[in-house]
Amino acid sequence: MVFVLRRVLQSLLVVLVMSLVVFVGVHLVGDPVHILISDDMTQAEIDRFIEKLGLDRPVHEQYLHFLANAARGDLGNSFVHGEPALKLILERMPATLELALAAFVLAIAVGIPLGMYAGLRPESPASRAIMAGSILGFSLPTFWVGLMLIMVFAVMLGWLPSTGRGEFLTWDGLRHLALPAINLALFKMALVTRLARAGTREAALQDYVRFARAKGLSPARVVRVHVLKNILIPVVTVLGLELGGLIAFSVVTETVFAWPGMGKLLIDSIQRLDRPVVVAYLVITVVMFVVINLVVDLLYAALDPRVRLSEARA
Amino acid sequence: MSARAETLPFGSAATETPLRRLARDFLDSRVAAGALVLLGLIAIAALFAPLLAPQNPYDLAKVTVLDARLAPGERGSAGFLMWLGADGAGRDMWSAILYGLRISLGVGVASGIVALLLGTALGLAAAYRGGWLDALVMRLVDLQLSFPAILVALILVAILGRGADKVMIALILVQWAYYARTVRASALVERRKEYIEAAQCLALPRARIVFRHLLPNCLAPMIVVGTLQTAHAISLEATLSFLGVGLPQTEPSLGLLIANGFDYMLSGRYWISFYPGIALLATIMSINLVGDRLRDVLNPRLER
Among residues A76, A9, A80, A13, which one has the least CA distance to residue A286? Predict the structure, then answer.
């Protein structure tokens, strides 16, 4: 219990530190007033504008004000859209989550079978091709793969739409989802393939697998039950941590495919110096990350008492 | 010492230095050797871009809109063959790629070196001094590495604003933690070894122990991390520039060239994005392959 409390407090501290870093940092960048006022505004109008946005108060006061409001779920209004920043982001969150989850499922569904195959037949040409492919998956910049997918499947072949999002879980929606999801999944797919291959190679040499074979079980059953079950633990643990990475990387994929999610909003807001939206995005993402890390840590501790004990001693 | 080596009867064996052994092991892999050659060519292309390019793509007097969107293989109005085509402003793509490589590699390598120095200094200090300094540095490293590099870079770019210098600072701050962690880990192992103890018993100055004894023995993992991180930095810079929050239009790296060609791609003019992408890819792949091979060669435990 003490361990859980400690971790929760640590996580809260991280969120607080990050919000301070982001807020103070963003405050010191250029002056959003210059971008938002038009030339024909009078000085009185400009002053009223600045006062309305609270930009005339000292930084620490703005931050405390921001914190107090954030605790109530109010992260300020967007300078550009004039709507609450939190609302803007939450509106776009389902699109990002849809994309991230589709990529997550795709990475597992493709990565595990490929990795297991490569692990069971490490010397075969197909396995070598899979491993070479996984190196490519690590090296290729996400945005460039996205461009190539658009070029091949949307422009040259004309099979799939290149931009936008359709209705959730309709044929049209799936068609729109296909290319972005593949794009976002590619990196994690390479990672899962490597993890599954390493796990399979290790498991294939274990006594319980040899025994299962000696018992006369069919090879398919040995692989499906005995090997698969044992490689799932490390794969799922690592992927849990990588879920946050998918959300962060969706910034790139969303921009390439004009997917109307949070990431696209972030990039637009950075370019327009729309400070409240940038801060709100970062705070929300940081909270998401901290929660994911916390949950994975607590799961570890629940599964492995050694972690708990060494933390308590430290 | 060299005089003695010459008198040894076994000429070839005497010339086997650690560096040569390393080079021979490295070149055992044909893929790695090929990647090294490719990387060398890319580096030369980047270094001598102004001499190799038929056109200075950012000299407005040399570029004409008449050449805009010429397909690969057509002859531009200046008379030379645009074998990779021209972009929307009529710049020769081959020249633009050479200049872009220069910027991409320059930013990647420069930020990598500064991050290496910063991370090494902090990592060594943390490992050797221990105590509060170690705790502070490692907390920072943990905090930063719990977020993906792209997110940290976006936060930094949002905070720092645009411009080449700001992107460099962001890349350095993203990378230092990887170096600090690597150096600290190997320094912690090394400092318990007897040669460090012996040096301490000789009452050598601390700086001498750290830089002459400890640091050289931590170099191997740093070289590997340094290579792979440079590829990572180049990729990250390209991504930021593509997203429009990286380098400004006046310093067009490969990422920006690709972004500029994006709109034309939908109308079938693939070459404006495609060829800079290939150049970026070749750079990142060759650095990664060299780095992977270095890791295999420098780490005897991984030998199969």
Answer: A13
Examine the pLDDT at A211 and tell me if it is beyond 70: yes
- B38 burial level (CB within 10 Å; 0-12, 13-18, 19+): middle
The first and second tokens of residue A253, run together, are 């994929």
What is the Cα Rg of chain B in Å?
Answer: 23
What SS3 class is residue B75? strand
Q: Give the residue from B62, B198, B57, B46 showing the smallest Cα distance to B110.
A: B46
Q: Is ipTM > 0.85 here? A: no
Closest to B247 measured CA to CA, from B105, B64, B49: B105
What residues of chain B lie within 8 A of the CB of A293, using their CB? 146
Q: How far is CA B86 from CA B26, B83, B176, B245, B252, in A?
A: 39, 9, 38, 24, 15
Per DSSP, the residues of A95-141 read HHHHHHHHHHHHHHHHHHHHHHHHHHSTTSHHHHHHHHHHHHHHHS-
Work out the angle between the directed axes of helices A171-204 and A228-256 (0-180°, nearest 10).
140
CA-nearest residue to A286 within chain B is B147
In this predicted structure, the answer to whether residue B114 has a pLDDT above a threshold of 90 is yes
Do A147 and B273 count as a contact with CB atoms less than 8 A apart?
A: yes
Q: 3-state class of A38 per DSSP?
A: coil
**Closest chain B residue by Cα to residue A290:** B146
Set of chain B residues whose Cβ sits within 8 Å of the Cβ of A248: 147-148, 150-151, 154
Q: Is the dihedral of CA B177, B179, B181, B184 positive or negative?
A: negative
pLDDT at B8: 47
CA distance linking residue A291 with residue A2, whole number of Å: 18
